[in-house]
Structure to design on (398 residues):
DNA sequence: GAAAAAAATGAACGGCGTTCAATTTTTTTG
DNA sequence: CAAAAAAATTGAACGCCGTTCATTTTTTTC
């Protein structure tokens, strides 16, 4: 790798690092190009030599978050195969734990409003699809006769509803669940919903 | 009412009107103080004679949205008392219909990030609590032996999960349900969850 | 080592929410 | 009704922001 390409790659990584740190400590809304340039010791203009705009930089930080959630869910999956229903509950809990312990970082995934014309890169979409696959696997076990398309639909329903519960419970300004109640309710929701499906 | 107070009240109303219109057509993110001043024919500074800041103005527009959702849910409630379970499904559907048909307006309720120090007025919180009461009523019928605090908890769980499904399904950039599948899945979720509760 | 290409720089631009000194209008006072 | 006080209106100006670009510096090519 040429010297210039090396430096460019390092600046890219440094900027995403700095963005992650600032998002984690102060939230994505207060991310500033000038702060980032200071953090990594480059000029303001250099940021735009590496990224099209700040939105793209945020997307890279968000991709790392998606990867970390994927790891957390992989760990939580444990022995899903033995007990897929409790496995799904564990996945929901893991999602909540992540969001609860890294709220600002997690929020950046959904809070930051990208311009409507700004199309998201495919790897962000793929990162979300991979999360869904953690759900689809135990789901297919619970509903062995269900067609894959149906399993995908149910996985999205489960993810969306769990996400809603987590989101509102972590938001002080909306009528979400108190944090202490989230685990119980997540279990009731997941088990109840799938009992209703008892294919 | 004095002449001055009248004019101030009119300007207040006009500005909220203009904000609603702009939010509905272009989204809360592109709301501009200068545009609003033009819309209602006042000067830039006059806005700040009526509202502390734009956030407060948006909160008033959002409050109107909450009121409209309350109306929609009141209508949807129909004869909840006859069939509370289907009543709850109807409430979920009504919420989805509203969000689907007035997406930008509905999104402004949750999208706009108010400064963390900026405390929300109590009437916004109350507006949300009123929505919950539409859910609590049929819920108490379905679970006659449940304590009110428990019913409140379940109502929040239901609202949060329905909200999550609606939110992600209306967002092109996340892995939500396709719109066509939302109604079915909402019914399955509500019924399944409550079946799991079968007191 | 000279020419060409690439990267880095930071001042400058345009747009934003908000402020404020100056002005006009309304209300109160005598 | 006039004069004084209070309130509202105004728009230029401030400070901050993301982004651009002419210029300078560094790296690569031959």
């Amino acid at each position: 790798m040429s010297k210039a390409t090396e430096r460019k790659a390092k600046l890219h990584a440094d900027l995403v690092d700095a963005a992650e740190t600032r998002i984690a400590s102060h939230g994505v809304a207060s991310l500033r190009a000038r702060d980032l340039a200071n953090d990594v010791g480059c000029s303001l203009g250099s940021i735009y030599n590496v990224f099209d705009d700040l939105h793209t930089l945020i997307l890279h930080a968000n991709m790392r978050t998606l990867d970390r959630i994927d790891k957390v869910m992989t760990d939580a999956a444990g022995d899903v195969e033995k007990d897929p229903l409790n496995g799904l509950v564990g996945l929901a809990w893991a999602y909540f734990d992540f969001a609860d312990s890294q709220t600002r970082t997690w929020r950046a995934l959904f809070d930051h409003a990208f311009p409507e014309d700004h199309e998201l890169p495919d790897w962000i979409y793929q990162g979300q699809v991979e999360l869904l696959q953690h759900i689809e696997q135990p789901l297919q076990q619970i509903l062995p006769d269900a067609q894959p398309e149906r399993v995908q639909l149910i996985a999205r329903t489960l993810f969306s509803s769990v996400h809603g519960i987590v989101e509102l419970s972590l938001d002080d300004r909306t009528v979400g669940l108190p944090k202490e109640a989230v685990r119980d309710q997540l279990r009731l929701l997941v088990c109840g919903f799938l009992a209703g499906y008892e294919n």
